[in-house]
Amino acid sequence: MKARGRSSSSGVDLHGKKILLIVTGGIAAYKSAHLVRLLVRSGGEVRVVLTASASEFVTPLTFEVLSGNPVPAGLFAPRSEPGVRHVELATWAQRILVAPATADFLAKAAHGLADDLASTVLLAARCPVILAPAMNEGMWQNPAVRRNIDVLRGDGKHFIEPGSGALACGESGSGRMAEPEEIVRTLLSSFEPGDLAGVRFLISAGRTEEDIDPVRYLSNRSSGRMGFALAAEAKRRGAHITLVHGPVDVEPPDVDACTRVRNAARMKAALSKAFPRCNVLIMAAAVADFTPVTRADAKIRRVEGNLSLELKPTPDILAILGARKKKEQVVVGFALETGGGGRFANEKARRKACDYLVLNRVGERTGFSVETNQISVFKDGRKVLATGIVSKEEAAAAIIGQLAADVRLRRMKR
Ligand code: C5P
Question: What pTM did the predictor assign?
Fold first, then answer.
């Protein structure tokens, strides 16, 4: 018999896919044994981590036999095991499934606790995470659980809603873990690349360097990571990507067209050329706001006393392209603020004719140079998305997910 959920409607299966299943301590854990069977039958390579209470419901041996892989006993590996166990598992996995996800595990995940292998792996993970909650209806409706789910959604985690029916506690209501077949279908669809197929993205990334003289320039600390993460995510979802980037600290992702420029004037030229053919412009680059009025031909020599540098504004590329925008084009601006950003975000979106404005704050773990970010997205004067401190990849997934739902983009998909 063919297992339901073996391959998706577009024929995607799990061959070559690495799935880490985290089983937490609810009675629905017995269904996770069947889930492992389905995942393996769909071709997936499956490794399982159990919380201590999950192993009260189903033994590690059951999952070892079904997955064909050892189930690690805890956070600390014996000396003979190479690598750091939670990091090794987190980097190995292409998807993490948490099924069942108990209220306690959701609370831990929402707060970033890491006191066992399951929660620590989740914290170390960069790949998409899909949670299938299971609990009694009272717990499922509890405001504390709702809050935790909102936080996790804001962090870019995906949920498979529980269904309703008879619950193990004897009550009937919502809170029943989604059936393993549905979980497999959701997982398969997360590997489908094509939901942005046919949509042309133009993305700017990195910083600009404005020459003062042949050896000195004005710049900022943008690493390029956020813009590159956006390009990689949109590409993963099937979009056509043109990337225009300034100097950066990391390698650009594999995209359809990539132009490297140095200063704001060159960035304006490259973007203006590509703009008419794009459906979506994302201005993630930290373009210099000012450039020296003149570039000295020779190195400026040391002088006694102060030296003044006269600066002029650079072209505001976003505002210029925003003004040229056609009705069906979507323009996304970025704003980096050191405080009170929400107020300025809406004003900036209006001034630069952006459909969306992504606000990121400058902080120890957010903004430039670092690998994490905390973003809010504004549309039509309303905050439509807010994340906690997340990896730039997760922030990118949340932003692209928000854009993918835009009706104009839906119309562009072929
Ligand atoms: O006004 P502010 O520099 O804060 O605006 C930031 C947004 O404007 C970003 O999306 C950035 O890429 C864009 N920008 C631009 N041209 C400039 C300066 C900023 O397109 N000269």
Answer: 0.61
